[in-house]
Specification:
This protein is mainly beta. The protein is about 5% helix and about 60% strand. It contains 3 helices and 34 strands. It has a 26-stranded antiparallel β-barrel. A hairpin with a 5-residue loop joins β13 and β14. α1 packs across α2. It is globular, with a radius of gyration of 30 Å. InterPro entries: Beta-barrel_TonB_sf (IPR036942), Decahaem-assoc_OM_MtrB/PioB (IPR020016).
Amino acid sequence: MRNTKPVRSATGRLLAGVALLAAGTPAIADEDEIKQLSKPESSGRVGLGYLTDDDRRGGQYNGLSDQKGYLLLDLDYNRRVDETGTWYRASARNLGLDNRELRGEYERQGNWRGFIDFSQIPRNEPLIPNTGLTGIGDPAQTINGTAPRNVFLDTRRDRFGLGFDKELSPALGFKVRYTHETKTGARMFGRGTGDFLTDPIDYRTQQLEATLGYQTEKYQLLGGYYGTLFNNKNKVLDVNTGVDIALPPSNDSHQLFLNGGYNFSPATRANFKAAYTRMRQNETFFTAPDFPGNTQTSLNGRMDVTQLQAGITSRASRELTLLANIRYEDRDDKTPRVQFLTPSAGRDGFNTPFSRTTTSAKGEAAYLLPSGIKLIGGLDWEKRKRSTLPVRQASWREENDETTLRFEARRSISETLNGALTLSFANRGGSDFLPANNNVANDLVDPVHFADRKRSKMRLSLDWLPLPALQVQTLLDFAKDDYDTRTLGPETGKATALALDANYTLSDAWQLYGFASYDDNKIDQSTQTSANGTLIPAQNWKAHLRNKGLAYGLGVRGQPMSKLELGADVQWGRDTNVHGVEAIVPPEALLPDIHSQRTTLRFYSNYTLQKNLTLRFDLIYDRFKTNDWTWTNFTYVDGTTVGNPNTNSTFLGVSLVYRMW
């Protein structure tokens, strides 16, 4: 944690030590500070921790999920050979946990650097299925192969990396990075029959990036290659009932890129980016196509992506700054269109290549008025063009375009108050809608990302220093969407967010800080449904969806005595999801609200036993509560249910931290 005593700069501490030595005054503390500045610090931490209850949600990614004891072990080694400018660095984090990290590095300053690292990233599924499925985590699974029991799903990534940097000359540098990652485990899965399954994950992902950079006072160029290779060892999920299921296919991508900049003058700079990527997927099908005469054994998928960008920024005068930028992206799907399946209702049996082109431009001007107000005006434009699908399940739009006008004003209102107000107005339209060609009713609905929309946004920010010891920051965001739908689809949307942060220095030794935030997001939309038995008639109906969030926190940190440092904070948050349905339905069919609430308390203390040895104590209390009925009241066709448990856990940790220089 950060010390709350007044901060002294490195230069200030060094000069203070020199002054005391010159005066002949004992300066043991400052000699230690000078030693810390002149030599790199190495440290180690060892301790024990205990989690009082199972908490798969709180420990979803940090490795603290099971009720048991944990080893707390961190190492950090730094050594510099002054004669040669050589650095040796090694670090190890969380060695006793499932999210451990290790890194070793060797560097010759001004010449070259190399490193190797390893990390593990766990993910524990907080939902707990109760199922009779067997073969979990394997590509062959049997529905109700055993009596129902609780199963705990998780995945783990093991990531190994290498890196090398070389300065070929003062202006020319080379870098290469390689990463190999394995991901194993199982996660929740299913299929259209309503049966519960698990996705057996056994992935291998490789990434390689190599860059060559050239830099002078006027020119900056960076070019290189970036490639990925993904391999899924499990090609198909074999289930004892029904047809088999294809799993994510192996694929690869290769990109060449060049970025650059040119300084025309100290006031004017231009930049550009260019990249070409080829992505391929050519995994062999696990079963032959069922369309007679088609012998193609894979999709032979290919996507070519071209990206271009150019921009210029110029400070035309002391008061005026101008900016212009244009960007182009073409995602060209070159996968051949082939008939793999026999036609049936709603499909023609062909695969559907999908291409998209996006062009955008931005212009901006900023002007500083004599009154100290800085005015910023901008105009943004974007156009998207998509492939026309031959088989459309709903209304389709080949083109969308959107224009946004932005205004901003910034001013130092007084010596203690700064503020900014931003307004933007956007209008989205596009080409005529293409009708759904297999369902007349679906042709009435405008999908939300296609529909005509007018969007207004406002942001107000204030930075206030009412007292020398008190700093307050506030932020207010408001947005409104109005959709011009033909018959059905989205209608209006609103979003409001308010945030407040404060920091108060009680004394040289104590500091208070806190925050509060509120957000409220709504959207109204209409749709149409057919009759569902005798309970729900065919009708047009509306949904008034709403998500509200409220959170606040308060913390304190301080140093009641020279050897003791304390810190504590409490955070509370609550989310509410409302499914307001305006329709003719029985009361028992209405969807209740979902509430989720979380409370977290953290406390730590550091006690200095001697100048290089510290005793640390940590306490973390975490409580989560929800009434999420989307899982707790849902039953799969095979009888599987899923628990979404409330959790209440406490973590206690005691460790020793040793430092050396």
